[in-house]
Specification:
Strand content: 15-25%
Strand order of the largest sheet: 8-7-19-18-17
Low-confidence stretches: 1-5, 72-78, 90-95, 162-166, 173-177
Radius of gyration: 30 Å
Structural class: alpha+beta
Mean pLDDT: 85
Number of helices: 16
Largest sheet: 5 strands, antiparallel
Distance between the termini: 63 Å
Number of strands: 19
Helix content: 25-40%
């Protein structure tokens, strides 16, 4: 019937129905009161005030709840919070909120990552690349709710904002009258579809994550997590658990891993902030804080032992060469030298042990984890030495390591990662001084030209960064690379993690190189 009504006629009729409802409720309550007076036993004492006041208050409370519920139901389609609630929490297929043809989700160049299509009278959400973008885009499905940008940006995708009453009035009218299917607004992300596909392709069958972001404004160009799930095929089996691949886990923003040698970037910044300019002796036999604990040694020690030879050790190293050679012995000593208080202050400044909000709306928050750097007992010097080389109880997310690299590239200032193209850039925190960042960046360039990352050095693009091979108690070591490019005027920062991938220089670093070169070809790095 509503489909045949003129919109103006329906508006008047809707107002009349609301008034009629409220009048009916008032008349019903009045009748109930009159019946109570008529049936009251005359010979009994009248209710005292102590009984009458609570009764009146309860009646008023019930009436208020009834009126609120009636208003919510009768005018809900004209409210953004009602539409969002119905889409996210009312799984029934006949729910009118699911009749909306939501806006498209686009990458930075306008490529469609998600769109709605009407098939046989029903609206379906289509994701052309399946699992490639699901760690960011998420899904929306009548039976299983919504995740990712589909959830937190649901108001925009539905066609309006909480402040745009005109948009929501029109949307609500279309839902009720159904003269035409309501259409939402498009949402443009900062992602680059080509780079995201390349990241997923290069990870292949491995489990891992890639995060690539702009060092100046925090725009995320790649946020890949493998393996993932196909948002076109959401079934109950996906949520039953037991799958060791954990396809619902966003490894980029929620996966916690020991960072290994990539965390030496933070220790190097601590040393520079403390004014370190000398050398430390790095003997072949390694370093420990007590004879009770196993010695921390450099990789070359074990390589020589496996080959039946004896390694002579690095001897005395300065900070630049220790970073290039990725000496565990050097950085374990460095962490112990400055102590727990300095280490804890550094992790606080670097925003560890907290969450960072990637996008927030009145109807959802999408946050990423940074990592875990627990406070150690002051007597635990060996634990501090382990954390200083990115092992022990220290854990981080790949997205956080990209932010750390971006801070070095951006003169010490970390930017808040952002996924919405038209959102303004926001500083996150100052990880280090400009002076420290200015000294650290050339050191990371030498890692690629002279150290463990020299296999990815390119004549056309000056890459700076740090490799990492993080010991993993569940199996083979995790492979890491963290860095930025171009080294002299950085524009992009990257973090690559390959679970149980082995040496960072052999597995993660080449993936980072390929992505940075493709970004350069796409114009994301200026010539």
């Amino acid at each position: 019937m509503t489909a045949s009504l003129d919109p103006e006629v329906w508006s008047v009729l809707r107002l009349i129905l609301q008034v009629a409802f409220f009048v009916s409720v008032f008349a019903l309550l009045k009748s109930m009161y009159e019946v109570r007076e008529f049936t009251q036993l005359r010979h009994l004492a009248k209710p005292t005030g102590a009984f009458r006041v609570p009764t009146i208050l309860l009646s008023l409370l019930f009436l208020g709840l009834l009126l609120y519920q009636a208003t919510w139901q009768l005018t809900g389609v004209f409210r953004p919070e009602f539409i969002a609630f119905m889409q996210l929490h009312d799984r029934r297929e006949f729910n009118p909120a699911h009749w909306i043809e939501r806006g498209r989700i686009l990458d930075r160049r306008g490529e469609v990552l998600a769109y709605s299509e009407e098939i046989l009278g029903k609206v379906y959400r289509i994701y052309p690349d399946g699992p490639v973008f699901s760690p960011v885009v998420g899904y929306t499905q009548p039976m299983f709710g919504a995740t990712g940008m589909e959830a937190v940006a649901t108001v925009h995708l539905n066609g309006g904002t909480a402040a745009s009453l005109k948009n929501w009035s029109e949307l609500g009218r279309q839902l009720v009258v159904q003269e035409k299917r309501p259409r939402g607004q498009d949402l443009t992300l900062t992602l680059d579809a080509d780079l995201q596909r390349l990241a997923v392709e290069r990870l292949g069958e491995c489990r891992g994550a890639v995060v690539l972001l702009n060092t100046i404004d925090g725009a995320i160009r790649v946020l890949a997590s493998v393996p993932s799930y196909d948002p076109n095929q959401i079934t109950p089996a996906l949520f039953q658990g037991g799958d060791p691949a954990s396809p619902l886990l966003n490894r980029a923003t929620q996966g916690l891993y020991p960072p290994g040698s990539t965390f030496k970037i933070a220790l190097a910044s601590l040393a520079l902030e403390q004014g370190f300019a000398g050398t430390l002796d790095c003997p072949a036999d390694g370093f420990t804080t007590s004879a009770r604990y196993r010695k921390i040694r450099d990789h070359e020690y074990y390589g020589a032992r496996n080959n039946g030879t004896v390694w002579k050790g690095y001897g005395r190293l300065d900070l630049t060469r220790a970073l290039a050679k990725s000496s565990n012995v050097f950085f374990a000593q460095l962490g112990v030298r400055y102590g727990h208080d300095a280490f804890d202050a550094m992790t606080d400044r670097f925003q560890l042990n907290r969450q960072i909000r990637l996008h927030e709306s009145p109807y959802g928050v999408w946050a990423m984890r940074t990592g875990q750097a627990p406070r150690l007992d002051r007597s635990d010097r060996y634990g501090l030495a382990q954390m200083s080389i990115g092992q022990g109880r220290l854990l981080v997310t790949p997205a956080y390591m990209a932010i750390m690299a971006g801070a070095v590239a951006n003169q010490g200032l970390a930017m808040t990662p952002r996924l919405i193209e038209n959102e303004p850039p926001r500083p996150l925190a100052r990880f280090m001084s400009e002076t420290t960042a200015g000294k650290l960046a050339p050191m990371l360039r030498k890692v690629v030209t002279e150290g463990t990352g020299r296999g990815i050095d390119q004549p056309t693009l000056a890459i700076a960064g740090k490799t990492g091979t993080a010991q993993n108690p569940q199996g083979d070591s995790h492979s890491w690379f963290v860095g930025f490019a171009p080294a002299d005027r950085p524009e992009l920062a990257i973090a690559v993690l390959v679970e149980q991938g082995g040496y960072g220089s052999a597995v993660a670093a080449p993936i980072a190189r390929d992505l940075l070169l493709r970004a350069q070809a796409l114009g994301l790095i200026r010539d």
